[in-house]
Design brief:
The structure is a homotetramer. The first copy, chain A, has 2 domains: 65 residues, Winged helix-like DNA-binding domain superfamily/Winged helix DNA-binding domain (Arc Repressor Mutant, subunit A, Orthogonal Bundle), CATH 1.10.10.10; 36 residues. Chain A has 5 helices and 2 strands, in the order αααββαα. A two-stranded antiparallel ribbon of chain A has the order 1-2. In chain A, α1 crosses α3. In chain A, β1 and β2 form a beta hairpin. Chain A is mostly helical. The interface between A and B is medium-sized, with 27 and 27 residues. Chain B binds a DNA duplex through α3.
DNA sequence: GTGGTCTAGACCACA
DNA sequence: GTGGTCTAGACCACA
């Protein structure tokens, strides 16, 4: 089973879809620190997209510190814990803000919890 | 006790701060359908801002269907239930989206519920 | 065949629907000057509505000079020509205004004529 | 020659007169998609009105999708074709309604066409 | 009294 | 330079 599926209805560019899918896989521990990512060419052919598109994904992932690329060797996951904490902190801040807003407009905590458990 | 307090750390314009405060008060039932809102001038003097600023708040609230204004008479709350449903629907949609995203990056439902109950 | 048909989808009050139907019938010459209108009761029962509703229609028609009511005799069409001219004048003024506006927004006279002849 | 002339006999507020004049100019193709509109301040001084008045005109034009405003850059015409279709549709609907009403009160199609060609 | 519009002019953010 | 917000204060229509 493929780990990455492109979504035709998603209006973001492909390189960005692939980028956020890879970030998710790293955060979920499917790829761990120092694990090699698939090569640009192999991932491109698996998804039937142009290698340039995947190249762009990898370049951006490296720029943001998710992976390191070693010439002639490949790309490897890096800084998992830093990234995990960063992402979790941002999400938590958004979540708390939205919960506060919900309370202000009269939505009960029970209703919120129900929405989560559903 | 004043119902509305301006927050100088809030970077939104004053007319918008007052607007969202009034929306909250309507959603929470502090102002009910057909209740008169304070007049433009009286609210302006209570908050020590220019009447034009409050005028703008009321114009936008009317445009969005929160209140109806009768010339020479004043402004009155309108459509409370419609607005309640609209606002709740939008909030719920945002919330569900954020919860999904949280799950994707590995945040447990327990952690989310904890953030709500805190 | 009944001359007046109520329209369920019309959101105006019944007395007003009947009123404008009667005005049309007078303007079109179905009822001529001095002709008697149906009695309040007979028209009410024909349309299956409350006589008070038709009473209101007739009161308003009299107030605006379309008919005269003679106690014990009934209601009669009056001032047909005055009303014809008034109505035509108002309609023409609206029409000319709308045509001007159409030209301003780039609608050709040919297009307008086509809309009429269709 | 000035493209916009204020009409002191027009009882609508200035900001609204200017607004509908600009809409006409866009519909007639005097301003095309992506064209810059005059800046708030320059149009205000050209018409000898307060910049706030023109500011209001531009804010409403943006809210209704006629223009897009880029802070520090200026305001630009947008969505010409969408707006053309919208406006034409509304006008046609009003026109057809008025023609129907005219027929009901006994005005001949010939008379209508004459009013248009005059 | 109420809201609606407008002027004159300041100050801010963005580019 | 551009637009966005705000103050201070006038004058109008409506009731």
């Amino acid at each position: 089973m493929a780990l990455i599926l492109l979504d035709y209805k998603d209006r973001r560019p492909i390189y960005e879809q692939v980028k956020s899918k890879l970030e998710e896989l790293i955060l979920l521990g499917v790829f761990n620190e120092s694990d090699p990512l698939p090569s640009v060419r192999s991932l491109a052919s698996e998804l039937s997209v142009n290698p340039n598109t995947i190249q762009r994904t990898y370049t951006e992932l490296e720029r943001e510190g998710w992976i390191v690329t070693i010439k002639g060797r490949g790309s490897f996951v890096s800084n998992v814990n830093v990234k995990k904490m960063e992402t979790e902190k941002n999400w938590t801040s958004d979540f708390v803000k939205l919960v506060d807003e919900g309370i202000k407009i009269g939505i009960s905590k029970e209703k919120m919890i129900e929405l989560i458990e559903k």
